[in-house]
Amino acid sequence: CEGIGGWLIWIVIGLIATPVILFVQIFHTYLPLFTSGAWQELTSAGSSVYHPVMAGLVVFEMVSKLFFAFSAIGLLALMLRESRRFPSLMILFFVLNLVYVASDMVLTGFLQGVPAEVFNGMTMQLVKTSLVAMLWIPYFVVSNRVRQTFVN
Predict the structure, then answer these.
(1) Model confidence over 55-97: pLDDT tens digits?
(2) Burial 49-80 (b: 16+ CB within 10 A, else e)
């Protein structure tokens, strides 16, 4: 068993940072929607900011962020135990993250009046997520270190 080292250190850092970043986003972006009265504005048909897709989009984003935060914590635990399930579940995490980012972009496209900067930011996120998946998925498939580390 080679242990967690080499390029896998970047995965450890990512799995530690992911829940922190996502929980901060949830507390600063989504929770205020429910405490400030903004949720009523977004979901009231007579409101100037109402769109029928908005409520579902907000819930989809918030639930997805919670899913990815808790998944990262679980994956970190599996990684530190050097579980043989870790590589395949990490690959699934990358794929699901890519599907989430693409889906979020498509759903946001249904909204009217979304500023171009928002779509530019989402496009950059989709590119980054795609590059991460294209880099790490093959690594988890072919790496000797991965094969020799995750044996429990």
Answers:
(1) 889 999 999 999 999 999 999 999 999 999 999 999 999 999 9
(2) eebeebeebbeebbebbeebbebbeebbebbe
Which amino acid makes up residue 68?
F
Pairwise CA distance, residues 114 & 50, whole Å? 13
pTM of the model: 0.90
Return d(Cα 52, Cα 57) in angstroms, integer: 9
Distance between CA atoms of 88 and 34, rounded to whole angstroms? 37
Q: pLDDT tens digit string along 117-132?
A: 988 999 999 999 999 9
For 83, residues 6+ apart whose C-beta sits below 8 A from its C-beta are: 150, 152
- Residue showing tokens 């171009």: 116
Q: What is the distance in angstroms between the CA of the first residue and the CA of the last residue of the chain?
A: 10
Residue partners of 8: CB distance under 8 A and separation at least 6: 79, 145, 146, 149
